[in-house]
Amino acid sequence: MSHVPSETTVGVVGGGQLGRMLGEAAAPLGVELVVSDPTPDAPAAPVVRDQIVGDFDDEATVRALAERADYLTFEIELADPDALERVSEATGTPVHPHPETLRLIQDKLVQKRRLRDAGVPVPAFRAVDSVADLRAALEELGYPAMLKAREGGYDGRGNVPVESPDGVGTAFEAIDGPAMVEEFVDYDRELAVMGAVGDGERDTFPVTETIHEAEILRTTCSPARTTEAVRERAREVALDVLDVLSGRGVFGVELFETNGDVLLNEIAPRPHNSGHWTIEGCHTSQFEQHLRGVLGLPLGATDRRGPTASANILGDVETRRQAHLAGVEDALTRDRLALHWYGKHEVYDLRKMGHVTLVGEAEPTALLETVRNAVADLRF
Amino acid sequence: MSHVPSETTVGVVGGGQLGRMLGEAAAPLGVELVVSDPTPDAPAAPVVRDQIVGDFDDEATVRALAERADYLTFEIELADPDALERVSEATGTPVHPHPETLRLIQDKLVQKRRLRDAGVPVPAFRAVDSVADLRAALEELGYPAMLKAREGGYDGRGNVPVESPDGVGTAFEAIDGPAMVEEFVDYDRELAVMGAVGDGERDTFPVTETIHEAEILRTTCSPARTTEAVRERAREVALDVLDVLSGRGVFGVELFETNGDVLLNEIAPRPHNSGHWTIEGCHTSQFEQHLRGVLGLPLGATDRRGPTASANILGDVETRRQAHLAGVEDALTRDRLALHWYGKHEVYDLRKMGHVTLVGEAEPTALLETVRNAVADLRF
Fold it and tell me: Do residues A301 and A284 lie in contact, with contact meaning Cβ atoms separated by under 8 Å?
């Protein structure tokens, strides 16, 4: 099917900031978006053709999306792969990435097994269905380790560190369900690579260094401040990961760098926070690339325009309340600084409300300092 | 007034492609747009908060816009400066640029007089209210010359060349109203400079070479293929032009290059086709810059990311009909090529339907060849 501008609609499950930035990328291509999201006037709503209000995993909502769309995709892992598959078959609307990929990624244990079997380097892990399982696994893996719920976690939710044998019972209770435990990786650095799969082609964006605090992404820079050999290895691993996934679109591949090698951390079957910098930093953004992939258009150039850093604007309030961001004038006095606001009506502590990006000629460390200072000028 | 994301709405008179690209630039800044346009589902409609259907010069429509907006602006010269001024005063909603600027620019004779008086180099011109005026003026200015309607012309409409004394009567009849006649400028090249006025600051984007055919812009490249001295002179003249205008926003300054100097051709009090390349080609686009200007935010960096060319996608059909663009896959096989579709439902001959842009490391001439070839792959 060829892409005729204004005649191609993509239905997106999820209308958060990723849906919003997909919407910003869609208009120039002549692609119209309809999104579904349970929150009325979701972040994407003002910039897309329409929003259908409904839960991410509600099949009738997915069906309504499909009936208005030429392609289906999703920007959140809470989408239901079974519903997507049934609706796609019933309506003939292709869905990308393939729901099988979503199913694979939703279950962290299944994901890790499949990746390990495909030769992707992953931390040592064990399945955990009981306190006894966990205790036995930790005798092999040692302490500390990370207990992870098999399903439903994101931004560090659903992850519980186990520091010593005394903490085993409490950790298992906190997860309270099917889990896996992973060896603690004493990493030197966290890296991420956005991969892209098109119609018979695949590519990666430049390797990104990701800096988390309390498991929430704070800043990124590209190039990552590591060796060229590690960057090349990260790219290889990302391409190996793409081989395991099916369907088109972009995929976020999160990695640990440890002792000059890399280990896979997690995969996101969609645009990812670690790739937001590509909007200004690369010749094609991850959002345009996702749409090009879903539509089967030629993938765009992924080369970097220049060294780039980004910083998230996170909620810094004690109680949930209406979002009211002050300090924009101050932040924007910085040359070349770009603001991205997500349009969320309410702010709560550590909620991702927007981000800033800076493309420069300076070293990543200097760029990081500038974006951090810019965000420090902003307050709710 | 400070800019609070999601709480700032800009009302835009006009919802064509300029309104659409303003909408694309507005979302990241957390600025919401409401546009007014007589055509339902105008190009901007799918990417902005709302469209009010109404004529550009209808005061009730402007009033409805103002009542929903914190700032008013316009993306078309057909806006009515008197209505804008009255509504702005009645509602307290600031309008940028100032309606006085619109008034000045709408009348080509008044515009040229004011610019000449301010020391801006303009071609020799005379007011023309009758055939006798025209004949007398041409005895001084010589043949050929360009007769221009004082009001209402764009894309070469309202401009009639007068080749010889035999053509005087026919030319005057074609205009049939208040006019001016301008000496024929045997230019070497056409240039354009986008100027930007913020709150107490002003700047220019890099000088652009504009290539017209039958008075319609076809392609642009930046840097312009001329000397550094001419580029510097063009920038100086553009800054002198900004001094004559009032209110904030971006302004298109079209120039003739002749014998190593420049002469002013025309001014647009809004983003302009000659600046579309800035979306990819500069660190801040003319559209974001216009919004920053209108809101009084710090102006963004106008430096060029790299040599850039753009080409318009023009209607190539004999009769007006539904727009259906084929060949997008072929055009997009070119590395780094960006597509911009305007979302117009109908196409007619030479209608501006979209554009493509390429930022590269190559010389402008090579980039121009690539964008021309890309557009040649597209057909309605």
Answer: yes
The 8 Å CB, 24+ separation contacts for B58-62 are: B58/B83, B59/B83, B59/B86, B59/B87, B61/B36, B62/B13, B62/B36, B62/B87
Interface residue A321 vs chain B (CB under 8 A): no
Residue in B95, B78, B44, B75 with CA at minimum distance from that of residue B272: B75
Work out whether strand B189-197 and strand B208-213 pair parallel, antiparallel, or are unpaired: antiparallel
Q: Contact at 8 Å (CB) between A31 and A63?
A: no
Check CB contact of B48 with chain A, cutoff 8 Å: yes
Q: How confident is the model at residue A165 (pLDDT cuts 50, 70, 90)?
A: very high
pLDDT confidence of residue B151? 87
Asked if A7 has any chain B CB less than 8 Å from its own CB, the reply is yes
Å between B145 CA and nearest CA of chain A: 40
The answer to whether the CB atoms of A27 and B46 lie below 8 A apart is: yes
On the question of pLDDT at B228 being above 70, the answer is yes
Span A67-80, mean pLDDT? Answer: 95
Would you give the distance in Å from CA A164 to the centre of its chain? Answer: 31
From A340, which residue of chain B is nearest by alpha-carbon distance? B28
Three-state DSSP class for A22?
Answer: helix
- Contact list in A for residue B333 (CB cut-off 8 A) is 298
Chain A interface, best mutation among B47, B68, B199, B353, by max A CB count within 10 A:
B47
**Helix, strand, coil share of chain A (percent; to 5):** 35, 30, 35
Return the H-helix or E-strand segment holding B370: helix B364-376
pLDDT reading at A1 higher than 80: no
Beta strands in B233-336 (DSSP E): 249-258, 261-268, 308-314, 321-322
With pLDDT > 70 as the criterion, what percentage of chain A qualifies?
A: 98
Which of B283, B305, B328 is facing A3, going by the closest CB pair?
A: B328
Could you tell me if B341 and B357 are in contact, meaning their C-beta atoms sit under 8 angstroms apart?
no
Neighbouring residues of A133: CB distance < 8 A, sequence distance ≥ 6: A126, A127
Provide φ and ψ at A109, rounded to 5°. Answer: -70, -50
Write down the pLDDT at residue A176: 80
How confident is the model at residue B2, as a pLDDT?
86
